[in-house]
Amino acid sequence: MTKPLNDTPKWVQGCFVLVGLGGLFFGVPLVVQGVREGSVGVAVLGGLCLLFTVPLPIFFLLSMWARSRIGKPQIALSRDTLGVGESFVLEYTHWFPRSVHIRRVVVELILRERVSFRAHHHTRGGVSHHTRTLTHDHIVQEIEKPGGHFQAGETLYHRFALRIPPNAMHSFAVHHNHLLWRVRVRLDIPHQPDLFLTFPLQVLPKLVFGGNA
Amino acid sequence: MKKATVDIIFLNGKQVQGDVRFHPGERLQGRLTITPYRDSQCREVRITLRWFTQGRGTRVEGKVLEHTFPLGALNQGVPITRDFSFTLPEAPWSYRGKYLHVVWAVEVQVDLPRARDLTARATFILHPYGLSETDA
Q1: Between A and B, how many CB-CB pairs are < 8 A?
Q2: Residue A3 — pLDDT band, cuts 50, 70, 90?
Q3: Domain annotation covers residue A32
Q4: Looking at the domain that runs over B4-126, which CATH code has it been given?
Q5: What band does A5 get if pLDDT is binned at 50, 70 and 90?
Q6: Alpha-carbon gap, residue A139 to A136, rounded angstroms
Q7: Beta bridge partners of A198
Q8: How many whole angstroms separate alpha carbon B104 and alpha carbon B96?
Q9: What are the pLDDT digits (tens) for A97-146?
Q10: Whole domain around residue A173: which residue ranges?
Q11: Is the dihedral of CA B74, B79, B80, B82 positive or negative?
Q12: Are residues A49 and A123 in the same domain?
Protein backbone atom coordinates (compact mmCIF):
# COMPACT_ATOMS: atom_id res chain seq x y z
CA MET A 1 0.00 0.00 0.00
CA THR A 2 1.09 3.57 -0.57
CA LYS A 3 3.18 5.48 1.90
CA PRO A 4 1.35 8.26 3.73
CA LEU A 5 2.62 11.75 3.06
CA ASN A 6 2.35 14.72 5.37
CA ASP A 7 0.93 17.76 3.57
CA THR A 8 3.68 20.00 4.92
CA PRO A 9 7.14 18.74 3.96
CA LYS A 10 9.57 18.08 6.78
CA TRP A 11 12.09 20.63 5.46
CA VAL A 12 9.40 23.36 5.54
CA GLN A 13 8.61 22.47 9.14
CA GLY A 14 12.34 22.63 9.90
CA CYS A 15 12.56 26.07 8.27
CA PHE A 16 9.66 27.31 10.39
CA VAL A 17 11.37 26.06 13.55
CA LEU A 18 14.60 27.83 12.53
CA VAL A 19 12.69 31.05 11.79
CA GLY A 20 11.05 30.78 15.21
CA LEU A 21 14.39 30.26 16.95
CA GLY A 22 15.82 33.22 15.03
CA GLY A 23 12.86 35.31 16.12
CA LEU A 24 13.47 34.31 19.74
CA PHE A 25 17.20 35.00 19.39
CA PHE A 26 16.66 38.56 18.15
CA GLY A 27 13.22 39.40 19.57
CA VAL A 28 13.73 38.59 23.27
CA PRO A 29 16.93 40.71 23.68
CA LEU A 30 15.26 43.60 21.85
CA VAL A 31 12.19 43.48 24.12
CA VAL A 32 14.38 43.21 27.27
CA GLN A 33 16.59 46.07 26.15
CA GLY A 34 13.60 48.21 25.21
CA VAL A 35 11.93 47.65 28.60
CA ARG A 36 15.16 48.28 30.56
CA GLU A 37 15.99 51.48 28.72
CA GLY A 38 12.40 52.64 28.43
CA SER A 39 12.65 52.69 24.64
CA VAL A 40 9.19 51.95 23.27
CA GLY A 41 10.41 51.66 19.67
CA VAL A 42 12.96 48.94 20.44
CA ALA A 43 10.46 47.03 22.59
CA VAL A 44 7.80 47.20 19.86
CA LEU A 45 10.34 46.06 17.26
CA GLY A 46 11.28 43.08 19.43
CA GLY A 47 7.60 42.32 20.05
CA LEU A 48 6.83 42.35 16.32
CA CYS A 49 9.83 40.11 15.70
CA LEU A 50 8.43 37.58 18.18
CA LEU A 51 4.87 37.96 16.90
CA PHE A 52 5.74 37.15 13.28
CA THR A 53 8.18 34.32 13.88
CA VAL A 54 7.40 32.39 17.04
CA PRO A 55 3.75 31.26 16.36
CA LEU A 56 4.76 29.10 13.37
CA PRO A 57 7.04 26.68 15.22
CA ILE A 58 4.59 26.67 18.15
CA PHE A 59 1.90 25.54 15.71
CA PHE A 60 4.09 22.72 14.43
CA LEU A 61 5.16 21.71 17.93
CA LEU A 62 1.47 21.58 18.90
CA SER A 63 0.80 19.43 15.83
CA MET A 64 3.57 17.03 16.78
CA TRP A 65 2.37 16.91 20.37
CA ALA A 66 -1.22 16.24 19.26
CA ARG A 67 -0.03 13.50 16.94
CA SER A 68 2.04 11.83 19.64
CA ARG A 69 -0.98 11.88 22.00
CA ILE A 70 -3.45 10.28 19.63
CA GLY A 71 -1.16 7.71 18.03
CA LYS A 72 -1.11 6.77 14.38
CA PRO A 73 -4.22 5.64 12.49
CA GLN A 74 -4.18 2.59 10.23
CA ILE A 75 -5.50 3.53 6.81
CA ALA A 76 -6.12 0.92 4.14
CA LEU A 77 -7.16 1.63 0.56
CA SER A 78 -8.85 -1.24 -1.26
CA ARG A 79 -6.67 -0.26 -4.24
CA ASP A 80 -4.45 2.62 -5.23
CA THR A 81 -4.47 2.05 -9.01
CA LEU A 82 -7.89 2.72 -10.45
CA GLY A 83 -9.76 3.45 -13.64
CA VAL A 84 -11.91 6.53 -14.21
CA GLY A 85 -15.40 5.89 -12.82
CA GLU A 86 -14.13 3.19 -10.47
CA SER A 87 -15.20 2.91 -6.83
CA PHE A 88 -12.91 2.07 -3.95
CA VAL A 89 -12.98 1.89 -0.19
CA LEU A 90 -10.89 3.57 2.48
CA GLU A 91 -10.90 1.90 5.88
CA TYR A 92 -9.89 4.03 8.84
CA THR A 93 -8.90 2.28 12.07
CA HIS A 94 -7.52 4.24 14.99
CA TRP A 95 -6.47 2.76 18.32
CA PHE A 96 -6.01 5.46 20.95
CA PRO A 97 -3.23 5.09 23.55
CA ARG A 98 -4.77 7.87 25.68
CA SER A 99 -8.22 9.23 26.36
CA VAL A 100 -9.06 11.62 23.52
CA HIS A 101 -11.98 13.54 22.02
CA ILE A 102 -12.32 13.48 18.23
CA ARG A 103 -14.84 15.86 16.66
CA ARG A 104 -14.99 14.24 13.20
CA VAL A 105 -13.07 12.38 10.53
CA VAL A 106 -13.19 13.91 7.03
CA VAL A 107 -12.06 12.12 3.90
CA GLU A 108 -11.55 14.14 0.71
CA LEU A 109 -10.97 12.82 -2.80
CA ILE A 110 -8.86 15.46 -4.51
CA LEU A 111 -7.74 16.16 -8.05
CA ARG A 112 -4.71 18.41 -7.75
CA GLU A 113 -3.52 20.60 -10.62
CA ARG A 114 0.13 21.51 -10.32
CA VAL A 115 1.85 23.54 -13.03
CA SER A 116 5.28 25.12 -13.15
CA PHE A 117 6.43 27.84 -15.51
CA ARG A 118 9.24 30.33 -16.01
CA ALA A 119 8.18 33.78 -14.84
CA HIS A 120 9.92 36.93 -16.10
CA HIS A 121 10.28 40.14 -14.13
CA HIS A 122 11.64 43.36 -15.53
CA THR A 123 14.11 44.89 -13.11
CA ARG A 124 16.51 47.82 -13.34
CA GLY A 125 19.35 45.49 -14.21
CA GLY A 126 17.41 43.66 -16.93
CA VAL A 127 15.04 40.72 -16.83
CA SER A 128 15.09 38.19 -14.01
CA HIS A 129 13.71 34.70 -14.42
CA HIS A 130 12.47 32.30 -11.83
CA THR A 131 10.32 29.18 -11.78
CA ARG A 132 6.83 29.51 -10.31
CA THR A 133 4.57 26.66 -9.32
CA LEU A 134 0.80 26.98 -8.98
CA THR A 135 -1.38 24.38 -7.30
CA HIS A 136 -5.14 24.06 -7.16
CA ASP A 137 -7.11 21.31 -5.44
CA HIS A 138 -10.49 20.27 -6.81
CA ILE A 139 -12.33 18.56 -3.97
CA VAL A 140 -14.18 15.93 -5.95
CA GLN A 141 -15.81 14.12 -3.04
CA GLU A 142 -15.96 14.81 0.67
CA ILE A 143 -17.30 12.45 3.32
CA GLU A 144 -17.57 13.39 6.96
CA LYS A 145 -18.10 10.91 9.80
CA PRO A 146 -18.59 11.70 13.47
CA GLY A 147 -15.90 11.14 16.08
CA GLY A 148 -16.67 10.99 19.79
CA HIS A 149 -14.95 10.52 23.11
CA PHE A 150 -12.61 7.55 23.33
CA GLN A 151 -10.96 6.06 26.40
CA ALA A 152 -7.42 4.72 26.29
CA GLY A 153 -7.41 1.39 24.43
CA GLU A 154 -10.61 2.08 22.45
CA THR A 155 -10.72 1.99 18.65
CA LEU A 156 -12.42 4.23 16.09
CA TYR A 157 -13.37 2.52 12.83
CA HIS A 158 -14.93 4.05 9.76
CA ARG A 159 -15.40 2.82 6.21
CA PHE A 160 -15.53 5.39 3.40
CA ALA A 161 -16.83 4.52 -0.08
CA LEU A 162 -15.31 6.77 -2.73
CA ARG A 163 -15.53 6.95 -6.50
CA ILE A 164 -13.52 8.60 -9.26
CA PRO A 165 -16.27 10.35 -11.27
CA PRO A 166 -16.82 8.84 -14.74
CA ASN A 167 -16.50 12.24 -16.42
CA ALA A 168 -13.18 12.97 -14.68
CA MET A 169 -9.62 13.03 -15.98
CA HIS A 170 -6.98 10.37 -15.42
CA SER A 171 -3.63 11.05 -13.75
CA PHE A 172 -1.44 13.13 -16.04
CA ALA A 173 2.18 14.22 -15.75
CA VAL A 174 4.18 15.79 -18.52
CA HIS A 175 6.93 18.44 -18.30
CA HIS A 176 5.85 20.45 -15.27
CA ASN A 177 2.12 19.93 -15.91
CA HIS A 178 0.57 17.54 -13.41
CA LEU A 179 -2.88 16.22 -12.60
CA LEU A 180 -2.57 14.22 -9.39
CA TRP A 181 -5.25 12.23 -7.62
CA ARG A 182 -5.07 12.18 -3.83
CA VAL A 183 -7.07 10.95 -0.87
CA ARG A 184 -6.69 13.22 2.14
CA VAL A 185 -7.80 12.17 5.61
CA ARG A 186 -8.40 14.95 8.14
CA LEU A 187 -8.85 14.27 11.83
CA ASP A 188 -10.57 17.17 13.58
CA ILE A 189 -9.48 17.36 17.23
CA PRO A 190 -10.87 20.16 19.44
CA HIS A 191 -8.32 22.81 20.54
CA GLN A 192 -5.55 21.22 18.51
CA PRO A 193 -4.34 21.51 14.92
CA ASP A 194 -6.04 19.06 12.54
CA LEU A 195 -4.13 15.92 11.64
CA PHE A 196 -3.73 15.43 7.88
CA LEU A 197 -2.68 12.30 6.04
CA THR A 198 -2.48 12.22 2.26
CA PHE A 199 -2.32 9.18 -0.02
CA PRO A 200 -1.56 9.28 -3.75
CA LEU A 201 -3.73 7.40 -6.25
CA GLN A 202 -2.89 6.40 -9.78
CA VAL A 203 -5.90 6.82 -12.08
CA LEU A 204 -5.47 5.15 -15.45
CA PRO A 205 -7.00 6.35 -18.74
CA LYS A 206 -9.69 3.70 -18.87
CA LEU A 207 -13.37 4.05 -18.10
CA VAL A 208 -14.56 1.56 -15.50
CA PHE A 209 -17.97 1.23 -13.92
CA GLY A 210 -18.21 -0.42 -10.53
CA GLY A 211 -15.30 -1.47 -8.33
CA ASN A 212 -14.87 -2.36 -4.71
CA ALA A 213 -17.39 -0.10 -3.01
CA MET B 1 -4.09 39.60 -48.87
CA LYS B 2 -5.41 36.16 -47.98
CA LYS B 3 -5.12 33.72 -50.86
CA ALA B 4 -7.68 31.15 -49.72
CA THR B 5 -9.82 30.00 -46.84
CA VAL B 6 -9.26 26.65 -45.19
CA ASP B 7 -12.10 24.89 -43.37
CA ILE B 8 -12.09 21.65 -41.39
CA ILE B 9 -15.23 19.75 -40.47
CA PHE B 10 -15.63 16.48 -38.60
CA LEU B 11 -17.78 13.89 -40.36
CA ASN B 12 -18.36 11.73 -37.29
CA GLY B 13 -18.11 12.14 -33.50
CA LYS B 14 -20.89 13.21 -31.17
CA GLN B 15 -22.07 16.80 -30.83
CA VAL B 16 -22.29 17.70 -27.12
CA GLN B 17 -22.91 21.32 -26.11
CA GLY B 18 -21.15 22.78 -29.12
CA ASP B 19 -18.17 20.42 -28.95
CA VAL B 20 -17.48 17.33 -31.01
CA ARG B 21 -16.59 14.38 -28.79
CA PHE B 22 -14.71 11.24 -29.73
CA HIS B 23 -14.03 8.05 -27.88
CA PRO B 24 -10.36 7.10 -27.31
CA GLY B 25 -9.33 4.60 -29.97
CA GLU B 26 -12.14 5.71 -32.30
CA ARG B 27 -11.53 6.55 -35.96
CA LEU B 28 -11.90 10.30 -36.54
CA GLN B 29 -13.12 11.23 -40.01
CA GLY B 30 -12.97 14.76 -41.34
CA ARG B 31 -13.10 16.87 -44.45
CA LEU B 32 -10.79 19.67 -45.48
CA THR B 33 -12.02 22.37 -47.89
CA ILE B 34 -9.71 24.93 -49.48
CA THR B 35 -11.41 27.79 -51.32
CA PRO B 36 -8.86 29.86 -53.32
CA TYR B 37 -9.47 33.59 -53.87
CA ARG B 38 -7.08 33.66 -56.83
CA ASP B 39 -5.12 31.29 -59.01
CA SER B 40 -1.97 29.94 -57.39
CA GLN B 41 0.07 26.83 -56.80
CA CYS B 42 0.20 24.71 -53.67
CA ARG B 43 3.28 22.66 -52.80
CA GLU B 44 1.67 20.38 -50.24
CA VAL B 45 -0.97 20.12 -47.55
CA ARG B 46 -0.11 18.81 -44.11
CA ILE B 47 -2.85 17.54 -41.76
CA THR B 48 -1.72 16.91 -38.19
CA LEU B 49 -3.43 15.29 -35.24
CA ARG B 50 -1.99 16.69 -32.01
CA TRP B 51 -2.68 17.49 -28.38
CA PHE B 52 -1.25 20.36 -26.40
CA THR B 53 -1.53 21.93 -22.97
CA GLN B 54 -2.96 25.38 -22.33
CA GLY B 55 -3.20 27.45 -19.19
CA ARG B 56 -0.55 28.70 -16.78
CA GLY B 57 1.98 25.90 -17.09
CA THR B 58 4.75 25.51 -19.64
CA ARG B 59 3.14 24.58 -22.94
CA VAL B 60 3.71 20.98 -23.97
CA GLU B 61 2.47 19.39 -27.16
CA GLY B 62 2.45 15.98 -28.72
CA LYS B 63 2.20 15.35 -32.45
CA VAL B 64 0.41 12.04 -32.81
CA LEU B 65 -0.11 11.53 -36.54
CA GLU B 66 0.48 13.47 -39.73
CA HIS B 67 -0.72 13.09 -43.33
CA THR B 68 0.93 14.99 -46.16
CA PHE B 69 -0.22 15.12 -49.77
CA PRO B 70 0.58 17.28 -52.82
CA LEU B 71 -2.18 19.48 -54.19
CA GLY B 72 -0.90 21.37 -57.28
CA ALA B 73 -2.89 24.14 -58.94
CA LEU B 74 -5.49 26.18 -57.06
CA ASN B 75 -8.07 27.87 -59.26
CA GLN B 76 -9.92 30.96 -58.11
CA GLY B 77 -13.35 30.18 -56.70
CA VAL B 78 -13.02 26.40 -57.18
CA PRO B 79 -13.09 24.68 -53.80
CA ILE B 80 -10.93 21.63 -53.26
CA THR B 81 -12.00 19.02 -50.73
CA ARG B 82 -10.05 16.16 -49.24
CA ASP B 83 -11.28 13.64 -46.72
CA PHE B 84 -8.94 12.44 -44.01
CA SER B 85 -9.10 10.06 -41.08
CA PHE B 86 -7.04 9.29 -38.00
CA THR B 87 -7.25 6.54 -35.42
CA LEU B 88 -7.28 8.36 -32.09
CA PRO B 89 -4.99 7.18 -29.29
CA GLU B 90 -6.17 6.04 -25.86
CA ALA B 91 -4.70 9.01 -23.95
CA PRO B 92 -4.33 11.74 -22.84
CA TRP B 93 -7.97 12.67 -22.50
CA SER B 94 -9.21 16.22 -22.90
CA TYR B 95 -9.28 18.24 -19.73
CA ARG B 96 -10.30 21.78 -18.76
CA GLY B 97 -9.23 22.93 -15.30
CA LYS B 98 -8.19 26.07 -13.47
CA TYR B 99 -4.51 26.22 -14.43
CA LEU B 100 -4.25 23.41 -16.95
CA HIS B 101 -6.15 22.38 -20.05
CA VAL B 102 -5.40 19.45 -22.34
CA VAL B 103 -6.68 20.21 -25.85
CA TRP B 104 -6.94 17.93 -28.87
CA ALA B 105 -6.94 19.36 -32.40
CA VAL B 106 -6.62 18.63 -36.09
CA GLU B 107 -4.41 21.24 -37.74
CA VAL B 108 -3.98 21.94 -41.44
CA GLN B 109 -1.05 23.73 -43.02
CA VAL B 110 -1.21 24.64 -46.71
CA ASP B 111 2.26 25.30 -48.11
CA LEU B 112 2.14 28.03 -50.77
CA PRO B 113 5.29 29.08 -52.71
CA ARG B 114 6.51 32.64 -51.97
CA ALA B 115 3.66 33.23 -49.54
CA ARG B 116 2.82 32.66 -45.92
CA ASP B 117 1.36 29.22 -45.23
CA LEU B 118 -2.37 29.00 -44.68
CA THR B 119 -3.34 27.32 -41.42
CA ALA B 120 -6.53 26.15 -39.74
CA ARG B 121 -7.31 24.29 -36.56
CA ALA B 122 -10.37 22.37 -35.38
CA THR B 123 -10.49 21.25 -31.76
CA PHE B 124 -12.43 18.33 -30.35
CA ILE B 125 -12.94 16.49 -27.05
CA LEU B 126 -11.29 13.12 -26.49
CA HIS B 127 -13.08 11.49 -23.56
CA PRO B 128 -15.03 8.24 -23.29
CA TYR B 129 -17.72 9.45 -20.89
CA GLY B 130 -21.16 10.21 -22.31
CA LEU B 131 -20.57 8.42 -25.61
CA SER B 132 -22.12 5.09 -24.76
CA GLU B 133 -25.62 3.97 -23.80
CA THR B 134 -24.24 2.31 -20.68
CA ASP B 135 -22.65 5.46 -19.21
CA ALA B 136 -24.27 6.25 -15.88
Answers
A1: 69
A2: very low
A3: yes
A4: 2.60.40.640
A5: very low
A6: 10
A7: A5, A184
A8: 11
A9: 988 899 999 999 999 999 998 887 777 777 778 888 999 999 999 999 99
A10: 71-211
A11: positive
A12: no
Query: Position A84: which residue type?
Result: V
What is the average pLDDT across B43-50?
A: 95
**Separation in Å, CA of B94 to nearest CA in chain A:** 8
The answer to ipTM > 0.85 is yes
Whether A207 has its CB under 8 Å from any CB of chain B: the answer is yes
**For residue B92, is the peptide bond before it cis, meaning its omega torsion is within 30 degrees of 0?**
yes
pTM as predicted = 0.81
Q: Do B98 and A136 count as a contact with CB atoms less than 8 A apart? A: yes
To test the contact with chain A by mutation, choose from B59, B88, B93, B96 the residue with the greatest count of A C-beta atoms within 10 A, namely: B93
d(CA B99, CA A81): 25
What pLDDT is attached to residue A8?
61
Which chain A residue has the Cα nearest residue B97?
A113
Q: Identify the domain boundary among A67, A83, A109.
A: A67
Q: Supply the mean pLDDT for chain B.
A: 91
Residue A4 lies in a domain: no
> Which H/E stretch holds residue A34?
helix A10-37
The domain locations on chain B are 4-126
Min distance A187 CA to chain B CA atoms (Å) = 28
